[in-house]
Amino acid sequence: MLFIQIRSLHALAQPKRIAVIGGGASGMFSAAAAASYIQQHGLNAEVHVLEATSSLMSKVKISGGGRCNVLHDTQKPVSEILNGYPRGKKELNGLFQKHFSPSDARRWFEERGVELKTELDGRMFPTTDSSLTIMDTIRHAAEKNHAQIKTKQKVLSITHSDSDDDDRDEGYYISLQNAQKQEEVNHYSAVILATGSNPRGYKMAQELGLKVNPPVPSLFTFNTKNQNKEGQVFHNLSGLSVQDATITLKIKMEGKKKKKIISQEGPILITHHGLSGPAALRLSAFAAKEFKDMNYRGDVFINWAPSFGNAVEIEKILWPMTSIAPKKKVSSVCPLLDENGSSVIPKRLWAALVKQSDIEPDQIWAETSKKKVGKLSRNIAEFVVDVTGKGVFKDEFVTAGGVSLKQLNMKTLESKKFPGVYFCGELIDVDGITGGYNFMNCWSTGYMSGTSCAMSLEESNEE
């Protein structure tokens, strides 16, 4: 009886502790939220950030070329913003609508002195154009409320202890290698896993018995080695972009006649190695698992002028040129014009497509057969690109996959199986396209996991 009383008094004296494993965007935001709640409600609790490396928020630092694309246009309806998530759209809906919205995230930064600007493509940046503004603000918010940030803390394992263990406190024991390369074991009342795409995070989740959907790369460029060779369409076109194009992947489904079609529209950029630009990157995200299954090899189809329709419709525009401008060179006259009277296909790309259609550079419209005009129409509307591999979109790699959302309470980000274990950021099976969507996931899930975790400590004290 005396032992139980002493143990109870000890438990009351000792602060409860939250371990945030990972000092990236979501981990630090989660720590800031948890520490803020603890201070506001006068709880006897601490927040410890355990970061394996010597630096914090490394992806924040390099985002947007060092400017930090912190959010996507928060003036847009939440329903429209959710369309930027290939995976997690449905589950994020309630989180964004009722708990921590994109507008809430904007206000969070603005209330801490960060001025934000929205660019034409919807990306939001600090007016300083420096990622350090965002990093310093988040770190200050955490440290101001006494979160303890510890770097070079490599977490090795997490084990659960319940009330039946007489010699161990209830909660979680974290084994780690500290900055001095010594192994230590510490007790925590709750854990927030925020390890991003680090394989150790997936392993820890699996060791706790959670299902992890296999992570695969997302937001990558396409290598098109064959089209970039000398004499081929993309040769010497590096840096050229088409502002309104459609890129499509068609996948043959086992046991089905119709192919699965995944398509994205927008700007496409031709590079030294292949294809990039918003439309290509979005396709890589929405078809991340399909491209992985294809080993990043296969055909994609591009319509360079989607506003003019399919190949049949485009041919109806091209063929009359044989009488409208019979003496003009095909390679120098593109009749597919925008509202300003400019060709929707850049001159050099148009000339390359004409050559690809077996039309000589000096050939005039009057001497061009219907067969060749038909081939040109197909090269415009359904140009076949042989993808030979994937590239990297700058340094802003993103993964699709992670801890299955079915195992989480999406209002709190707590594990349904292990009370007291929370998840946030890229570790969970949510990913967005480029443009601020992935950070929005970090801020929202980080805020809710941190706040919910701290709140649970308050509730356990009341019990």
UniProtKB/TrEMBL annotation:
Keywords: FAD, Flavoprotein. Its cofactor is FAD. Residues 216-398 form the RsdA/BaiN/AoA(So)-like insert domain. InterPro entries: BaiN-like (IPR004792), BaiN-like_dom_sf (IPR023166), FAD/NAD-bd_sf (IPR036188), RsdA/BaiN/AoA(So)-like_dom (IPR055178), RsdA/BaiN/AoA(So)_Rossmann (IPR057661). This is Uncharacterized protein. Residues 17-451 form the RsdA/BaiN/AoA(So)-like Rossmann fold-like domain. Pfam families: HI0933_like, HI0933_like_1st. Coiled coil: none annotated. It comes from the Eukaryota.
